[in-house]
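Try this one yourself first.
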């Protein structure tokens, strides 16, 4: 098994509008197994387009104009993501990769209990599981994300925003994916809740060994949670290095500008999460 989970080569995406928008330009990167890779950059630099594009989650007018994405499965198989047909793609998205969207906690069904909604994931994607096995798996998930099994019969409105977002993380974790893509997963939450959840994501990836692509414009937050950070500007990755290196010795002028735009409250990088 290689220590690379996902290889992206010369990946480009254009929004075919008038005039066309070149949202991602010739991006190449290797995501390592078990790492948290932060994707940072100003609004509109192409973070979301890149992260969705490598999973082929983009819809028209987005067009992938160039590039190759290979997923190095834990089984040893190399999966050429661009070559998957619609059925294979659906399975790939649930089994291998999962996504936590910005504001995902508001996408829970308001009239179903969270237990039932988690149960649904197994019912659809693991048809071989019995009712009892599904229930046990849901209880386990609720414990893992620290929502607690006693919330099994709660409705979304009975939970805080942070708890609901934990339920979404449980859902993303359900089928034990090898990659989790998180797009501003904690932006809507207050800082303390946000930190708690981030700490937990970091612990879970150690426990379960999945990799995380974490998208946010909040660079200080990325410095704390990420192993490596890719800085994007105008569709390109201008710098990709360890969080320590980005903080202590940024190479690119734009990275420096981006760092300077955040106040250094302590003068030191607070590595509280690792
Ligand atoms: N459906 C679309 N049609 C046309 N242009 C689009 C579309 N979606 C995104 N874009 C453009 O593509 C570029 C990259 O957008 P993208 O959303 O990937 O950036 P981002 O870095 O994720 O920004 P944000 O942090 O605001 O989500 C931007 O110039 C944006 O305006």
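Now uncover the answer:
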């Amino acid at each position: 098994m290689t220590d690379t989970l996902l290889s992206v080569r010369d990946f480009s995406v254009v929004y075919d509008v008038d005039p066309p928008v070149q949202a991602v330009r010739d991006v190449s990167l290797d995501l390592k197994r078990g790492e948290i890779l932060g994707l940072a950059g100003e609004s509109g630099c192409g973070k979301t387009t890149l992260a969705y594009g490598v999973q082929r989650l983009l819809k028209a007018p987005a067009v992938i104009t160039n590039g190759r994405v290979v997923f190095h499965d834990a089984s040893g198989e190399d999966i050429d993501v661009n070559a998957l047909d619609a059925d294979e793609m659906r399975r790939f998205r649930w089994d291998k990769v999962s996504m936590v969207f910005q504001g995902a906690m508001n996408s829970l069904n308001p009239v179903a209990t969270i237990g039932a909604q988690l149960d649904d994931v197994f019912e659809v994607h693991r048809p071989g599981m019995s009712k009892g096995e599904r229930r046990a798996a849901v209880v386990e998930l609720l414990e893992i994300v620290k929502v607690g099994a006693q919330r099994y019969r709660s409705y979304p409105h009975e939970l805080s925003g942070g708890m609901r977002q934990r339920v979404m993380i449980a859902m993303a974790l359900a089928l034990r994916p090898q990659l989790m893509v998180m797009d501003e997963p904690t932006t809507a939450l207050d800082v303390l809740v946000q930190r708690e959840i981030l700490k937990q994501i970091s612990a879970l990836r150690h426990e379960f060994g999945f990799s995380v692509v974490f998208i946010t414009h909040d660079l200080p937050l990325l410095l704390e949670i990420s192993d490596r950070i890719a800085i994007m500007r105008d569709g390109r990755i201008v710098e990709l290095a360890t969080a320590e290196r980005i903080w202590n010795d940024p190479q690119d002028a734009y990275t420096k500008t981006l760092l300077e735009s955040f106040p250094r409250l302590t003068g030191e990088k607070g590595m509280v999460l690792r």
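Discussion: DSSP finds nine helices and ten strands in the chain. The CA atoms of residues 102 and 187 lie 7 Å apart.
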